[in-house]
Amino acid sequence: MRDQVCTRRKNPWTVKTSRSIYDNPWIAVREHEVVTPGGGDGIYGVVGFKNVALGVLPLFSNGDTVLVGQWRFALDCYSWELPEGGGRLGGDPVEEARRELSEETGLQAGAWREILRMDLSNSVSDEQAIGYLAMDLTQGAPHPDEDESLEIRRLPFKTALRMAIQGEITDAITVAMLLRAHHMAVEGDIEPALARAMILGGGETP
Amino acid sequence: MRDQVCTRRKNPWTVKTSRSIYDNPWIAVREHEVVTPGGGDGIYGVVGFKNVALGVLPLFSNGDTVLVGQWRFALDCYSWELPEGGGRLGGDPVEEARRELSEETGLQAGAWREILRMDLSNSVSDEQAIGYLAMDLTQGAPHPDEDESLEIRRLPFKTALRMAIQGEITDAITVAMLLRAHHMAVEGDIEPALARAMILGGGETP
After folding, report:
1. ipTM score for this prediction
2. What is the mean pLDDT of chain B?
3. What is the rounded average pLDDT of the residues B63-71?
4. Domain total for chain B?
5. Which of A190, A120, A40, A166 is nearest to B122 (CA)?
6. Do B29 and A29 touch, CB atoms closer than 8 A?
7. Model pLDDT, residue B50
8. Which residues of A touch B35 (CB under 8 A)?
9. Any alpha helices (H) in chain B, and if so which ranges?
10. Are A66 and A148 in a shared domain?
11. Co-location of B122 and B173 in the same domain
């Protein structure tokens, strides 16, 4: 969709000069001298991402999902999130998501469905996220990256959604994907027995 | 909530050295030499944000909302979004959101309600977003920043939500807020007549 939207408009910014500020394996920062849409001179610092952010919402037939807990260095804070990771730009995102889910949780999914695309922070960066629903799950052994220190927690989808609503989950991909899955369950876009388990909370007592 | 979650855990990263890479009025980039949770040496580039991202979902009593269209320099693409802007860290976010809504759309809202907090891109940045529902709306004259070139479009909430689902809206704050408002309407967390107008599409023919 993005290409279609882009080609219908003319870029109102003019770039006079650009310079590279910083580069590491994950991001490249550039500063541009610009003329703004209003005609004024300015600068624009842009953070370019070398990976696409992939999120996976594993959904068991009883309405459970899985969260991953980890310390987020950039926030200086612990964070509970859906399984996520970086996929190579130009790679096959669903294959990368499959690898990420398996590494972090040991789960293999027989059914994959793209449910979300987002630009995460478009005032400064070009980081894109793609979210998948993963169903038909079988459990294998996780094999996380040795630089990661992860906790894995299986819980009812309804509980995860409540954590997002109450501010205990704040990761944007996770919040949006949980809400999107709720929307799908309510709109009849997920198989009725599973949708019911998601909304009612599966085996949980109310 | 974030403080509570943070204090229950120990940071598994060690920072050996830190240096400033880049600084402008909106972001500051730092690179840290670290020891990872797995014990390996590494670097971590972090983009610190000088503002909090504020999003506003204006909701008219007939179920309409308002989108703002603008060219996003960092994406090199046009983007339709809810009214958004940066608020000073340490400022009163609802006052900053009120100012942003008025500047971009001319709307004044009598009722404000926080509906979402998210960390937008926590693998690299500390950028936080806060989303508000704005109701009891009255129309005044917009007075946008002269560096901005904005289009304003009033449309049924249901149509905006469909745009997000179909990938015509990709801004993360907008996608998450539209889904959150849908969740509220379905869960009985919005006044019934308004919730009905949001879900059914107001005056729109199906």
Report:
1. 0.95
2. 93
3. 97
4. 2
5. A120
6. yes
7. 98
8. none
9. 2-7, 93-105, 157-165, 172-186, 192-200
10. yes
11. yes
